[in-house]
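Sequence of Type IV pilus assembly protein PilC (Pseudoxanthomonas taiwanensis J19).
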Amino acid sequence: MSATRSAVKSAPAARSTSELAQFVWEGTDKRGVKMKGEQSARNANMLRAELRRQGITPTVVKPKSKPLFGSAGKAITPKDIAFFSRQMATMMKSGVPIVTALEIIGGGQKNPRMKNMVGGIRADIEGGSSLYEAISKHPVQFDELYRNLVRAGEGAGVLETVLDTIANYKENIEALKGKIKKAMFYPAMTIAVALIVSAILLVFVVPQFEETFKGFGADLPAFTQLIVNASRFMVAYWWAVLIAAVGAIGAFIYAYKRSTSFQHFLDRVVLKIPVIGEIMNNSAIARFARTTAVTFKAGVPLVEALDSVAGATGSSVYEKAILRIRDDVAVGYPVNLAMKQTNLFPHMVVQMAAIGEEAGALDTMLFKVAEYYEQEVNNAVDALASLIEPMIMVVLGVLVGGMVVGMYLPIFKLASTI
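Predicted 3D structure, token representation.
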């Protein structure tokens, strides 16, 4: 008779995540029943001692073998953190102790990186750390805003409520990000498809027509000659065009990530593009409103909250504006007046903030602002999706149709002379 036991309780946990290793073990319990499982531990000897303490006589304890591909697992995404937050909030509100909740969540993870991270957090908490201290060891996955909210929740003794707020916040923000990506994806795909189709025609189709034109013994129309010259260049130097395109994309990404001035310039340009700019503006306002409301409701001081909010808007233009608001609020200005001075926030948003301050319900008003602008983003993205299909048809029609007309112009000219 055999049985499989899920991960036994880990060894004493005053350790860092980097010290943990994954082991597989086999053994027998006091009844002689064969057991096997998988467990993280600092080393094999500590795992054997832990198994014996639980009444299991280990026969095999060895490091878990790693597959050739994908052994590290996928990167931890914001959606993973959102789902983790929701699970934590649900279990803690149901009365499950935090260590048990982390053990359950870690045991259900298929991504090794996520599993190891959750295991490390659980180990730190078992060793006496707070949740804030445990997640602070993972600043990439848990940003400053997340950590500040958890710290405020632990300090006020309402951690489960704050985790529920964080889960709602993360889910809303990720849904909004998905809408923005969808809005940006369509125009990018239109341009990419148009360029690929044009390149295929120039490299493979136009040269066939050129061979036919050589037998005409007459000068080609200027438009046709332009297409033929472009085709010759593409056939001869396609590799240079490819390298230049890849290099330009790489240089653009590098400059955007490394140069704050270039990032600010590009973000400002994007905000002025018709339709796309409106979506990006509304998205930044929605993120600002929801993030500020969540942090303020959790008990984080407003100035400190604004410092965390600045990086959550997704736009360097709004980030600088919010940092300016933070500085103004720190010296005594009302939030609505500081917002008005930036010339970025619509009159309605400023007035809602003013009403919220006067009524002592700033977080409630900002939640309403967030909901309104998130709905505006949804509507704008849906409208863009309905407009983009005819736009794709027009762009491809102009490019492909232009080349087809250019190739047939000599034939039409020849037919008119007969």
